[in-house]
């Protein structure tokens, strides 16, 4: 799979839209949104169409608390690794890598010869709480490091220089969607469950076609105007999400030991609607 730099992609897109005359207002905290209006701490913006594309931060918007659950994905990066390391482990073409465990992992060789590696494991917080302090968790980052060492034992001799993380958005049925309510002018795109770097591009192009009234191949895709059910209210949401993490983590242990699919994971996946 190809690897891209998401930060450079975002900056490039920003330059492209500004070149075409758009204005980007960063640091504008949205306090509420509705048909034809977005309210911020400093004023409001009116428009025929309002697009909600807030992904893991969606629960912070009044009225959207149960639309998505924020799940933190944390990452680390090693120091630049010598050629002797790469000669041993491969990845000569900067291939991305992962496996089929339930507690997802993902990694890549960076352009400056580090390993950037991430995974799940951070606990869901009551009330879908999001805060910058949750972007780093020493215990979870240590567990992610242990998984990387398990995959590439030679990396244990090198240092971790960066740790970070952030929330992604999970719909109740794990089904990403993009859509437009022409009656109200409210549009949305999200619920990517961690696959948003690529999927947001398709979502943006689809929204452009929907808002401009164009009937195209991508506006007829199955995810267009799909409506996911809401997540349960607390405390059911807290209990369910945390129980799910525990079940899937234990399923990984069982599957690694037996080499067979975990029955508990299959049952819980059906409950989630996967």
TrEMBL record:
SUPFAM superfamilies: FAD/NAD(P)-binding domain. Residues 3-210 form the FAD dependent oxidoreductase domain. GO terms for cellular component: cytoplasm. Pfam families: DAO (PF01266). This is Unannotated protein. It comes from freshwater metagenome.
